[in-house]
Amino acid sequence: MPSDAKSDAAVIFTNPDAYTDLQAWHAVAARLRREDPVCRVESARFEPFWAVTRHADVNEIERQSDKFHNTIASVLQTREQVAQMRSLGPMLKTLINMDGQEHRNYRAVTNDWFKPNNLKRTFQPRISDLARKYVDRMVELGGECDFAMDVARYYPLQVIMSILGVPESDELKMLDLTQKLFGADDPDFAGGPDRQAAALAAVMDFISYFREMTANRRAHPGGDLASTIANGTVDGKPLEDLHTFSYYVIVATAGHDTTSSTLAGGLEELIRNPDQIKLLQQNPDLIDNAVEEMIRWVTPVRHFMRFAQENYVLRGKNIKAGDGLLMSYLSANRDEEVFEQPLRFDVRRANAEDHLAFGVGVHFCLGATLARMELRTFFRELLPRLESIELTGPTQYSAATFVGAPKRIPVRYKLRK
Ligand code: HEM
Q: For residues 330 and 356, what is the distance between their CA atoms, to the nearest angstrom?
């Protein structure tokens, strides 16, 4: 592959700004899938790593969790960030930083809580109420709003806060904190020029908030997720502080921006394809599949890293023990070997659910059922009431290599009350 394409590869995986122009991003990713699907990326600020862009290869890595570990560095970080983490020790240790038996033990603490039966029974009514509340809010906003900022940001946040048991009065504080943690690459969301410091401050704030919550749930356990975490045990002992707080943080952060982004990006794509809005209005049974296509399309979690535990040959490339591999879900979900016309948004796509947006294998997204419930419930509320909708200006995407999607979707619409 010519060297300019290799440097394009370095840019699309390491430069947050590359994610603000997704059309250009996907053009480079498509070329990589064709010409160098397991591509060695070298860039001054990062340890060299392999960028894995094909669906089959991401699958092959994810399904062999004994050979490819998440480790503490499961998200791409600069040399400087890695050095800082090594010298200070990790601020958090969440499920996505664990491997093997440790991961199985900690995942087991909440696994049952996230099962469809529990969620449906305990939270579907609340989620339906919130979906109605946010579609009503669109009516209150008078027929024009920024869907990303005014609606999509808040609805999943309120769902996740209800699930954790955080009162409504603290939700704005939590919104600010999750954005400082997850949107740390984007100047609109980061806490200032020193994003590491902003992220650290956000973690400290989380810890003090949830320390109080843990004490409360140990004294008065209920049916919420915070009670399950606060009273969870591993090897017969309560979780240590680091693990308890890490659990809250992963749920509060992983459960928010991901779903907001899919909601905003999904609506944007419907607006760009008005025939598909009509189709869904005439055939509401298609909404579940439409949501799957939105998740494939948006793929809000752009990547995760894995580290080879032994030498391995992947698509003819010699991966050495210790090498890092960036699994690009965003690219895998546009893989033409799996998805026909992958650059077309199609709510009828027969195999939309073959996407890898939730990962696969032992780390498969714990909140996938919840995310699907939220998205399906929202569109089931919105679409029957929607008379018309259009974009009133350009949409904007956040600059983030890890989790990102639209941050501005200016819309004008007519909705039935
Ligand atoms: C559309 C929305 C979402 C997307 C696209 C998404 C995506 C992902 C991905 C790609 C992973 C890593 C999978 C892997 O390594 O194989 C993951 C893990 C995880 N997600 Fe989600 N997620 C979403 C929503 C949620 C929600 C709503 C929650 C919780 C309330 C959640 C909680 C988690 C947790 C706890 C993990 C770690 C699981 C583990 O390592 O065992 N996610 N998610």
A: 9
Q: Report which ligand 1 atom has the smallest distance to the Cα of 250.
A: 35
pLDDT tens digit string along 176-231? 776 676 554 555 554 455 666 777 787 788 788 888 889 999 999 988 899 999 99
Q: Which two tokens stand for residue 398?
A: 């956040």
407 neighbors 149 (Cβ within 8 angstroms): yes
Find residue 151's DSSP bridge partners: none
The 10s digit of each residue's pLDDT in 290-340 is: 999 999 999 999 999 999 999 999 999 999 999 999 999 999 999 999 999
The answer, yes or no, to whether any atom of ligand 1 lies below 6 A from the CB of 314, is no
Which residues are CB-neighbours of 301 under 8 A, at least 6 positions away? Answer: 258, 329, 357, 359, 402, 403
Pocket lining: 376 vs ligand 1, CB cutoff 6 Å: no
pTM: 0.94
Instruction: State pLDDT tens for residues 257-281.
Output: 899 999 999 999 999 999 999 999 9
- Ligand 1 midpoint to CA 42 (Å): 28
Mean confidence (pLDDT) of the chain: 91
Find out whether the beta carbon of 357 lies less than 6 Å from any atom of ligand 1. yes
The helix/strand/coil state of 251 is helix
Distance CA 203, CA 23 (A): 34
Give DSSP secondary structure letters for 399-416: --SSB--EEE-EEEEEE-
The CA distances from residue 239 to 70, 200, 247, in Å, are: 21, 22, 10
Mutate to test the pocket of ligand 1, among 365, 369, 403 (most ligand atoms within 8 A of CB): 365
Among 257, 358, 362, 372, name the best residue to mutate to test ligand 1's pocket (greatest count of ligand atoms within 8 A of Cβ): 358
Tokens of 312: 């391995």
Max Cα separation, the chain? 63
Rounded-to-integer distance, Cα 156 and Cα 188, Å: 20
57 with 67: CB under 8 angstroms?
A: no
